[in-house]
């Protein structure tokens, strides 16, 4: 039995060697052990380019690539969300994860403990401006212009550029607790400011929301970035490199890239079908039939459908939401939509109303009925988790968490800021709150227009 004692002793030694600090760097946990475990533990962070939760489902370009890679290995994906690059690296070296799926900056110091792998991605900073004849073509044209920038690397780069040009750029550093990088891009698109700076990836994603943006003017050197594993996981690094080489042109890879960086995220909208005949759409009878079950004016339900799909039952959104009421596949199944019936108008409306009823119960603590409807609309658009996060933030910072406008809405807008989505009271991470804020406003305003023009 001596050999059994020896095996037990060696097992304890390996477990000890794989715990914490410097000893973790000697841990030989590589691809064979991952396959034996049946799970790839991936570290990433919340952002519009890596991972976020949308309508209750995991989304994000890096998340989708990591999922595809895990499937190629024949293992499940387990995701751990970190707050920063430093936290991801420390967690990786401690053995809390196997791979960082994030555009991690490639540095000489990082090569001492990491193996960079997968796609070598090139990032740089760009000027975000509106398209047109007046769009800047050269950095020298920034002289005598007002540019609004987020603190940190963007502010540092524009200050250095201003010095290189001999001065003259009017630089406005915004407060990070009130505006995010993406908020400034929205301001540019809406004409509130003329110029800001963003990374090319974030700029590309935002251009899918605002087609009037020009992001072609580069103002920084290229920065190489990629995934990373521990230096003691060369087989995993080799597998990631091989997977990328063989799949970068695959339909799945291209579909993910197109979903986040190319597809227009906004639905085009048309007019009321016939004011004279009192018809909003071809589906008015269905709206009237099902709105009563949730105590809604049917014109509000119609306004929701209009905002979601422009009354087009064949619409499929960039995120995969289907049908007249744009339910996510998982939600549609849970609400009883039969397979293959996602585009059936009545099935879509019936399921949406069932989902709305669940949300009404979820936000039953909101005492005012009209306010509760705004919370329900926000949750329908964003997923309930982001709304409850915004409520928790509102309560924490002394605002009324039962009132939407200027209270909870204020914090749904701030959920794209690290300071807020990393707050301990938030459970659902990063979220682009601008879209939900606008959604609630658009649906409620559209419903009022319908009520004015169309008889009950």
Automatic annotation (TrEMBL):
UniProt-listed PANTHER family: MEMBRANE-BOUND LYTIC MUREIN TRANSGLYCOSYLASE F
Signal peptide, first to last residue: 1-17
Name assigned to this protein: Transglycosylase SLT domain-containing protein
Membrane is among the record's keywords: yes
Solute-binding protein family 3/N-terminal domain residues: 39-264
Family: Belongs to the transglycosylase Slt family.
Chief location: membrane
Keywords linked to the UniProt accession: Cell outer membrane, Membrane, Signal
Membrane-related topology note: Peripheral membrane protein
Coiled coil: none
Location within or outside the cell: Cell outer membrane
One Pfam entry name: SLT
Keyword Transferase: no
């Amino acid at each position: 039995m001596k050999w059994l004692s020896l095996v037990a002793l060696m097992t304890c030694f390996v477990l000890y060697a794989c715990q914490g600090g410097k000893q973790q760097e000697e841990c030989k946990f590589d691809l064979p052990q991952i396959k034996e475990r049946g799970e790839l533990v991936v570290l990433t962070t919340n952002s519009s380019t890596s991972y976020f939760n949308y309508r209750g489902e995991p989304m994000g370009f890096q998340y989708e690539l990591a999922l595809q890679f895990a499937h190629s290995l024949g293992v499940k994906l387990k995701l751990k969300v970190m707050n920063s690059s430093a936290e991801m690296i420390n967690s990786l070296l401690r053995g809390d994860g196997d791979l960082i799926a994030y555009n991690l900056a490639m540095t000489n110091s990082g090569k001492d403990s990491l193996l960079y792998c997968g796609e070598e991605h090139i990032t740089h900073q760009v000027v975000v401006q509106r398209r047109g004849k007046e769009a800047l073509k050269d950095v020298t044209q920034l002289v005598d212009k007002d540019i609004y920038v987020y603190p940190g690397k963007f502010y540092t780069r524009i200050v250095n550029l201003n010095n290189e040009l001999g001065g003259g750029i009017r630089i406005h550093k915004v407060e990070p607790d009130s505006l995010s990088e993406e908020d400034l891009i929205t301001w540019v698109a809406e004409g509130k400011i003329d110029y800001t700076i963003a990374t090319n990836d974030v700029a590309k994603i935002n251009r899918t929301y605002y087609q009037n943006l020009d992001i072609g003017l580069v103002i920084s050197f290229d920065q190489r970035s990629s995934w990373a594993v521990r230096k003691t996981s060369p087989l995993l690094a080799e597998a990631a490199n091989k997977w990328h080489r063989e799949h970068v042109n695959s339909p799945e890879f291209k579909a993910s890239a197109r979903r986040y960086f190319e597809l227009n995220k906004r639905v085009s909208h048309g007019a009321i079908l016939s004011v004279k005949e009192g018809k909003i759409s071809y589906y008015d009878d269905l709206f009237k039939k099902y709105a009563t079950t949730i105590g809604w004016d049917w014109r509000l339900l119609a306004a929701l459908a209009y905002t979601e799909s422009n009354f087009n039952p064949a619409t499929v959104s960039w995120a995969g939401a289907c049908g007249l009421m744009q339910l996510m596949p998982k939600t549609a199944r849970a609400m009883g939509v039969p397979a293959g019936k996602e585009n059936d108008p009545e099935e879509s409306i019936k399921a949406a109303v069932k989902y709305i009823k669940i949300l009404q119960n979820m936000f039953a603590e909101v005492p005012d009925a009209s306010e509760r409807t705004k919370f329900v609309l926000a949750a329908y658009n964003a997923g309930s988790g982001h709304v409850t996060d915004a409520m928790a933030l509102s309560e924490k910072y002394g605002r009324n968490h039962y009132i939407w406008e200027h209270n909870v809405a204020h914090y749904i807008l701030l959920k794209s800021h690290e300071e807020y989505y990393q707050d301990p009271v938030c459970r659902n991470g990063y979220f682009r709150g601008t879209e939900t804020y606008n959604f609630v406003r658009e649906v409620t305003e559209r419903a009022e227009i319908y009520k004015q023009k169309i008889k009950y």
